[in-house]
Amino acid sequence: MCVTPGTPTETFTPELFDEIFHLLRGYERAVVPTAVDHAYEMIWKQLIVSGGRGGQRLSDVTLAAQLGVSRTPVRQALYRLAEDGLVVSDPRRGFWMRTFTSRDVSEIYTLRSALEVLALRLAAPLLNPDDLAAQLELATELRYNPQAHSLALHLRSDVHMHNLLILGSANSRLIRALATIRSQHSMFQIRDSLFPSRVEAAAQDHQDILRALIAGSVDQAADLLAKHIERSATGVLEDLFADEDDQAG
Q: What's the whole-model pTM score?
């Protein structure tokens, strides 16, 4: 399982995608997962690995054989993924991987920014200072220690940092909405993490946000978070969608 936006510089293991799934969607997983839950998780990970390169037909027959389940739970999982915006459903043509455009990316990041800033403001008075300090220490390590510049570690740290703010909001509807948006966002984030400058910039942003929260400067932290997400969007568009913009021009 490997993500390759050009020349691959690091292999992302199945274990990493397992962890990302559970960090983003694990909170809603049943204690005893059903066949639909299993199919949903496995197909979700396949879609994230694709990195937003859509257009491929998703055969429920083929997926059922791969996953060792019947077609019914696979189809139910595909309908759930269509609701998440990762799959296109057509009554006549079946299911397809969604193709994301630069406009989609802009919309995803704009919505994510608005919702996550709200989550930060709700979470700020509830956050544990020790959790913030531990996350700041990790962000500092990632930024300044060359031995820590693992893309897998960066992705884990990034998801954990944003989870700290989102889950800290204690708003279940906001958490669910952001889980869906971040599932779409993950397709681009994983590919864009192969660009080293993006990793360092994200680590610096995380440091600044966490320091502001530790200092009790919620307005400053909210502003820094919005700018961080805006910079991430700009990076994705420049790194992954420049060809699309050139063709449009």
A: 0.85
Flag whether 7 is in a domain: no
- pLDDT tens-digit series, residues 190-249: 777 777 777 788 889 999 999 999 999 999 999 999 999 999 999 889 988 877 654 554
Asked if 116 and 212 sit in the same domain, the reply is: yes
Q: What is the DSSP string of the chain?
A: ----SSS--SPPPHHHHHHHHHHHHGGG--SS--HHHHHHHHHHHHHHHHTT----EE-HHHHHHHHTS-HHHHHHHHHHHHHTTSEEEETTTEEEEPPP-HHHHHHHHHHHHHHHHHHHHHHGGG--HHHHHHHHHHHHHHHH-GGG--HHHHHHHHHHHHHHHHHHT--HHHHHHHHHHHHHHHHHHHHHTTSHHHHHHHHHHHHHHHHHHHTT-HHHHHHHHHHHHHHHHHHHHHHHSHHHHHHH-
Judgement on whether residues 44 and 70 belong to the same structural domain of the protein: yes
Segment 34-51, tens digit of pLDDT = 999 999 999 998 888 776
Is residue 79 domain-shared with residue 118, that is, in the same domain?
no
Give the span between the Cα atoms of 79 and 58, in whole angstroms.
12
24 φ, ψ (degrees, to nearest 5): -85, -40
